[in-house]
Amino acid sequence: MRGSRIKRAGAFIVAAAVLAPAAPAAAKPQQVSVERGANFGHRIFPDDAFTVRDDRQLTGRRVRFRRGRDFPVVDGRLRQDCDKGTYSICDAFRRLNELDGVDLQPRVTVPFTAAIDLDSVGRRNVFITSGGRRVTGLGQLTFDPRTHILAGISDEFLREGRRYRIHVTSAIEDPRGNRINACGGECVVPFTTRTASGALVRIRRSLDFRERDPNNAYARAGIKRRDLDFTQDGTADVFRAATIPPSVVGSSGGIMRTDQVKKNPDAPGALRTSVVPNLIPPGTAGFFAFGSFWSPRYQFASKSGRRDHASGQTDGVIRSVPTKRTPRPVGADRIGAIAVTPDPALFPPPWPAAVYGPGFTRSKYDIFVSADYNAARGILTIATDPAGHAYGEHSTATVTSGGRQTTFRGFGRGRDLDGDGDIGDGLDDGVGPTGHVKSEAKTLPSRKPIDGVRSGLMQTVIDNMALGRALNGLDIPGVGRNLVDPSRLRYYGISFGGIYGTMLMGTDPLFRRGLLNDPGGPIVDIARLSGFRGDLADQLERSRPALLNGGPGRNGFTEDLPLRNEAPRVIDHRGAAELQELFATSNWFERSGSPETFAPRIRLRPDKTWKNDPKQVSFQTAYGDGTVPNPTAGTLYRAGRLFDRVVYYRNDKTPTFGSGPHGWLADPRLAGRTSGQQQLAEFLATGSLINTNPLFLETPIGDANNLECLHYPDPQTGEGQERPPFPVSGECPRS
């Protein structure tokens, strides 16, 4: 009896065990794989799968992102379309869809099905090839644990219009040390880079077409006079330098400027007068001549200054065209210019001429603080204003010469594009598309959200090309005729002038020698790492959707993006991945107006017009520059293989180490100015790059690795810029 009960109980237990749900056994971890979906964000990018055939393009391709399938993604979820709160996303993708390929220094993204060990990623398991040859790996690696997307930026600047392949191998590991599945062994994805320099190159060619050619840029713009004119209302605005009293800040000097700073020139406070500092040593220059010239305008300019269409024209923007076509001018601008001549009695003409490029928010009047020794070396110097600069069209200049005052137009190029009633010194007044002020508390974003200053830089290069051509047969009343030797044209520029000057030197065969002071690129990287970060934050705040994500970063955003020599970083601030994507797409679109695109054309892959007669170039960069940060200068020099032509101003070794060094070539308060000016004049005159002060200048740079870090705290940390002296200042750590 007892035994049968035991048997029945045992049978019941066995039956229960069979019928009851089994307790889950320890599951074998599923292998992490590279995603191979059909949509952007779910497959490796870049990829030619996101292009379509287009015979109007030099690459034969055009980018095509699909609305509702690839974008817009909002808060991690794909939406079918944009609305009034998200339209900046669709506006950006619309611009990308105009391009004939991907970025020249692309941000590569690799989506995974789960987390990976970021430390296992390296140049051996994620890399780029071309023609079967390994070209480069990725740097600035990040991993987003929310989306499981690995991102990195190509270490090398790639060639235009070339086919490449991304390789992702199974040597990447998951957090447990297991190898991931990369397409069964290795993922290989083809992509084609865009052609970015072609628009400016073709515009330059159109400037040199025969006058009767219907495609001549001047003819299309309606320009009949290509020379410089130094008269207004029948009076020549040309003055002997020796007759003009000195000008220093705070004095009522010999040269004054009155700037139109409000849209309404009759409004109270609309005109602001200030002295033009003049540091050219007395007795070294012959004449100061104030004139103007005509330049074809490619930036759109409506009468109202308020036009901004998502798929049409926008004020301040140069419209994109298929890359087999040449952009056409949409008008012409009369632009101001100032020339400083040598003394004809000491240096009989014709003279070599140097075109000077002013910096951002600066103007042609800076010629008087950046050409100390040029006239004394027999060089004529001339300058014009960058696009959108020098305030409004009612601006004037007044020169006192021999006790007599002469006032004339200053040809200001600024316009009130953002609708705030003011005309500033460049940023929101014609360099590119702007936001639109609707009220004190509301500003809407431009419908061209990733254009940045691309158009303004391109237009300024065009203007300087036109200025160079206007010097041929230069006549200045009271000085002489045919004053310039057109075979000896030089260029030099500071900051923004160094940026568009690099573009000019990589485009125009007219300029054979150039010195570029404190350039860098791309522009978004300059902004986010520098004192312009606040201006970038303003754009992020008015974007739809707004992109300020807080965190420790200065100015309300944190991008979690390491520098090139820093360790990979796991993204830990929500919204940082979106910022990285935005910055990458902005760089991608802006390459046609960014200096690193043109740096290879100077010497590495020179244009055929100077291939057999190489240009002479030099660059100057300041240690710890907080306006154009050292890593952005490194990007430019690396793109063109130009480190052997770089002079490094060691601000940390000077008595003025605590000051921001960016304006060291023009600012008399900085210790290196005189040495820099002497080096500039010698190079412009002879082509020799000499070290005028071994205590402050490395000629060439001693260690290019010093351009890999900021030499001040990264703005992402929330700390401000600090500049201790050497040796506390230190050198960049090696990666």
Brief synopsis:
The protein has 735 residues and is an alpha+beta fold. The protein is built from twelve helices and 29 strands. Among the domains are: 48-195, Sandwich (Immunoglobulin-like); 217-245 and 285-434 and 443-494, no CATH class; 525-591 and 704-717, no CATH class.
Question: What's the arrangement of secondary structure elements?
Answer:
Elements: H1 2-19, E1 51-53, E2 61-63, E3 73-74, E4 77-78, H2 87-96, E5 107-111, E6 126-130, E7 133-144, E8 149-154, E9 163-169, E10 186-192, H3 198-207, H4 217-221, E11 231-232, E12 235-236, E13 238-240, E14 255-260, E15 271-275, E16 287-297, E17 331-340, E18 351-357, E19 380-384, E20 396-401, E21 404-409, E22 436-439, E23 442-444, H5 454-470, E24 484-494, H6 496-505, E25 513-517, H7 523-529, H8 533-542, E26 569-570, H9 576-590, H10 595-602, E27 616-622, H11 630-640, E28 646-649, H12 673-686, E29 697-698
Parallel strand pairs: 7-26, 18-19, 18-24, 24-25, 25-27, 27-28
Antiparallel strand pairs: 1-2, 3-4, 5-8, 6-7, 6-9, 7-8, 9-10, 11-12, 13-16, 14-15, 14-20, 16-17, 17-19, 20-21, 22-23, 28-29
